[in-house]
Amino acid sequence: MEEISPLSFRDPAGTVFVKGNRIFRQLTEEGITTWDALKTSPFFKTYVEKGWVIPTWDTSQQTKPTLEHERIPFFSYPYEWPFVYLKEAALLCLEMLLDLLSQGFILKDATPFNFQFKSGKPILIDVLSIEKKASGDPWAGYHQFCEGFLNPLLLASYKRIPHQEWLRGSPSGISSRHLSSLMNGLTVLKKGIFTHVKMKAYFEERFGGVANLTRDDIQAAQFPTLGIIKNIQKLQSLIKGLTYRPARKSTWENYEDASSYAADALNKKKHFVAEMLSQWKGALAWDVGCNEGSYSILASKYFGQVVSMDRDDQIINNLVVKLRQAPLGNILPLVMDWANPTPGMGWANQELKSIFERQKPDVVLYLAFLHHMAVQSNVPLSLQIDLLSKTTSNLIIEFIDPTDAMFKQLMRNQKKDLSGYNAKAFENLLQKNFKIVKQEPLNSTRTIYAAVKNTNE
After folding, report:
1. Distance set, CA 141 to CA 146, 336, 347 (Å)
2. Which CATH class is domain 255-453?
3. Given 3-state DSSP classes, what are the helix, strand and coil percentages for the chain, each rounded to the nearest 5?
4. Which of 84, 176, 355, 385 sits most deeply, having the most CB atoms within 10 A of its CB?
5. Predicted confidence band at 222 (pLDDT cuts at 50, 70, 90)?
6. Contact by Cβ (8 Å): 147, 176
7. pLDDT tops 80 at residue 443
């Protein structure tokens, strides 16, 4: 059975469809012309070998020109990426552009949605966005690059405002006019602001926005190839120098070191998790509320892909750095608020899939997280268990009693009715949807459970 990808309906070059576990793209006349030039180019094979471009094969039949693309282990979006991922994808886009220009080609699009992360590195998935450059043509993707890549990075680096929530509210990016209104005072003197934000905002205001510009307008305002190259090189220098430091230190940084586990309890927990993961080996594991990622790393030994989720962007950035030192490429850290997870968005709320619509995990790790959702986000146990039952068939979950020291710390200065939050209520709710196959007390206030979804569900 074929499933048309809702993400590709805007693409004049072809339609992406899924068949089983395989990804195909049926080409239009425009797509055929682009692919013919691309497959005979001297660089395409090199780009695939370097990991810049998704491996692609021509599987055309006589009447249906078709490509097959290698499947990405787990699809993610720029509004879920940590700062370092958005920065790395931007730099790959620019590096590829420079190389393409030297060979008479260009990237017609420069949106971060054309990139994914594979083995911890950015990769271009829209191969047909590479096309031959006509003499005198500008880099039409500059506006798209600024809104989708540059402006979110500048917002995070110069104003210490995380880009994720803004991009989720506006997936097409941050307009220069909006960003310009935030970049006042001494910020105007920071690198890149006058050229790529203030002047661009003025230009858009004067001409009524990019949508109202004619091709002649753009060519008059942009540059010949040498000018495009110089602009890209300046963008490279600017973005390489950008760093992100949150406005305040993360509450949960070094949480694992400060947690109330004694060495014996911690060893019990790690052994329990490892034993169950080794039994449930599979393609995909989710680590919800991953914090510093210790259990994501453990899961990576048994699962082809691990998605690590935490709403704290600083924690996720730190995890990326930690994984690069290992290195571990099959862990994908994402900024994700489980109390407000990524919904379906775009046209008919189907163009960009919700976190639950992409690929069902074989197992979910929900460790020392249940009480955070109950206390900080006011999500009852019943709703948490219900969502987990709709998400996975295998679950490793930890219950922390209200008498636990870290639980009491969460409850400081809060008045909440937690009469329904207790071990008996938790086990009753869990067993409505799951069968508990193993449980083990870690200490007097913490118990860990392995559960399999009931077959009658």
Report:
1. 9, 29, 22
2. alpha beta
3. 45, 20, 35
4. 176
5. very low
6. yes
7. yes
